[in-house]
Amino acid sequence: MSKVFKVIPLMLILTLIISIGLTGCQKNDLERVRLVEVTHSLFYTPQYVALTQGFFEEEGLDVEIRDGKGADKVMAALLSGEADVGFMGLEASVYVYKQGREDYAMNFAQLTQRDGSFLVGREPDPDFTFDQLKGKEVLGGRKGGMPFMTLEYVVKNHGLVPGKDVNLRTDVQFDVLAGAFVGGEGDYVSLFEPVAATLEKEGKGYVVASIGKAGGYIPYTGYSTTKSILEEKSEMIQSFTNAIYKGMLWVQEHSSEEIAEAVKPQFPDTDDDVLVALIDRYREQDSWKPDLIITEEGLDHLMNIMEMAGELDEKVEYDKIVTTEFAKQAMKNIKK
């Protein structure tokens, strides 16, 4: 064998080793961020776009996402140090502040501006109206959680009295609502996507109404971190917000088909046509907050809903639990 053929494989091996080493170094250079989300849903499409399109990496972050299965569990993870960023309903930060905790949660960016759940019945009902819930039982989720409080708000706005005209159940955990409904419990259930669409495809339930449309604009889901992390890792929080804003802009600039392709890795078991239909549904009802800024008016509306639900006796000052610094800077950093 000639020396040429001996040298070439050796050179290839050395090149491969160097390449792997550089890749490892690049990965290690990224700052790890532990993000715990309230649930895994297409409702949060801009976040998954930021992940799959590499926007977090562009900002120097290696983001690890975990499903917290409820805002109470997400907040617990954040306060215990198991998460760097919590993605959940803003009501959780209100509760924590009211408890008098010193290192409480601050909200720095808003992703959704409506409730993302849909009312699912046992039969198709294109002419459904909320007054049809009279005398019925609805599986609504956890008491004190935003999905349940928004449902309760909508029901009351349609002239029904919970506990008298309609039974809104809070004894079934958020992550097993669909299973309980399929098992025969309740006449209706409040579900996020793609769970509701999965039930429709299997013929086990049918979307009859959008709770988001009926509930109006609310700072529904946002990003929180503790005061200490906000102070100690402000650059990381800014980079994180930049990436989310890039994801939001990308969603605004691309078709539902392109978005579905982008988020497919996050929802591999959902058919492409269903992904497109659900993205269309969320876009049509204006689900996502274009500028990520949590407004004082929006937080006040959310706390009104909490008060109506009997979960809040006194409102929290806006500036105590909200900062708009990072969302505003992201808009300056990333031009449309």
> Mean pLDDT score, rounded?
90
H/E element string? HEHHEHEHEEEHEHEHEHEHHHHHHH
**Largest beta-sheet characterization:** 5 strands, mixed
CATH class of the largest domain: Alpha Beta
Shape: globular
The proportion of residues forming helix, as a percent range, comes to 40-55%
- C-alpha-based Rg, rounded: 22 Å
Write the layout of secondary structure elements.
Layout: H1 3-29, E1 31-37, H2 45-52, H3 55-58, E2 61-67, H4 71-79, E3 85-89, H5 91-98, E4 105-112, E5 118-121, E6 137-139, H6 146-157, E7 167-169, H7 177-182, E8 188-191, H8 195-201, E9 206-210, H9 211-215, E10 221-226, H10 227-232, H11 234-253, H12 256-263, H13 272-284, H14 296-308, H15 318-321, H16 325-333
Parallel strand pairs: 1-2, 1-3, 6-7, 6-8
Antiparallel strand pairs: 3-10, 4-10, 5-8, 5-9
Helix pairs in contact: 2-11, 11-16, 12-13
Task: Give an account of the 3D structure.
The chain is α/β, with parallel strands linked by helices and 336 residues long. The protein has 2 domains: 32-114 and 218-333, D-Maltodextrin-Binding Protein, domain 2 (3-Layer(aba) Sandwich), CATH 3.40.190; 118-215, Periplasmic binding protein-like II (D-Maltodextrin-Binding Protein, domain 2, 3-Layer(aba) Sandwich), CATH 3.40.190. The chain has 16 helices and 10 strands. It has helices spanning 3-29, 45-52, 55-58, 71-79, 91-98, 146-157, 177-182, 195-201, 211-215, 227-232, 234-253, 256-263, 272-284, 296-308, 318-321, 325-333; strands spanning 31-37, 61-67, 85-89, 105-112, 118-121, 137-139, 167-169, 188-191, 206-210, 221-226. A 5-stranded mixed sheet has the order 2-1-3-10-4, with helices on both faces. Helix 12 packs across helix 13. The longest helix has 27 residues, at 3-29. The protein is globular, with a radius of gyration of 22 Å. It starts with a helix and ends with a helix. Mean pLDDT is 90; it is low at 1-8 and 11-25.
